[in-house]
Amino acid sequence: MRQPRITQLFTAAILLALPLLLANCGGDSGTTVAPTSIEGNWKIAAIKLNPGIDVSPLGKVTDLLTAYGLLRTTTCLTDVTFMFKSDGTVTSTNPTSCKDNIAEIKQQTGIDLAGTNKWSLAGDQLTLTASDNTKLTATSTVTSGAMVWTYKRVIKDLNGKDSSQDITFEYKRI
């Protein structure tokens, strides 16, 4: 099985974060959403990697959100709003800053920033299903203002070295 490269990791991180942030983007439906519900609108606040990996010219990288912005010279990841809806779907905004990254993200992760993905939560296990049925399951916690989810992935760095990484996404409710 081919191991993902660092650009694929960044792309996967972006796409995996999207479905977790999306929900309740409609008007007042008369329904109250619990503060610990995944439903609502979210933005990525951090993407962390433990242990870090070597990325030229940045050196050891543990903060993927910052590294992605520096390497790709875009604010795409922090510009996207994810809407997690009560019907189990997640959609996202498609900001101008992401227009050059949509195809790459879809190709490498199966998640379409311009499409509808699905989410389900069983206990602390969040499963995201992309439009091509690619699935990602992460351990998640949700509070009134934040959502955090973590999953393991083997990553191939720019030197071709494989390492097992814990990838953590942090979101803020907006």
The share of residues in helices is: 10-25%
Report the total helices: 4
**Which strand order do you get reading across the main beta sheet?**
1-3-4-5-6-7-8-9
Based on helices, strands and strand pairing, what is the structural class? alpha+beta
Could you outline the blueprint of secondary structure elements for this entry?
Layout: H1 6-21, E1 40-55, E2 59-63, H2 64-72, H3 76-79, E3 82-84, E4 89-92, H4 102-109, E5 117-122, E6 125-129, E7 135-142, E8 146-156, E9 162-173
Antiparallel strand pairs: 1-2, 1-3, 1-9, 3-4, 4-5, 5-6, 6-7, 7-8, 8-9
Would you mind describing this structure in some detail?
The chain is of the alpha+beta class. The protein is globular, with a radius of gyration of 15 Å. The termini are far apart. Mean pLDDT is 76; it is low at 9-33. It has helices spanning 6-21, 64-72, 76-79, 102-109, and strands at 40-55, 59-63, 82-84, 89-92, 117-122, 125-129, 135-142, 146-156, 162-173.
Quick structural summary:
The protein is an alpha+beta fold and 174 residues long. The chain has helices spanning 6-21, 64-72, 76-79, 102-109; strands spanning 40-55, 59-63, 82-84, 89-92, 117-122, 125-129, 135-142, 146-156, 162-173.
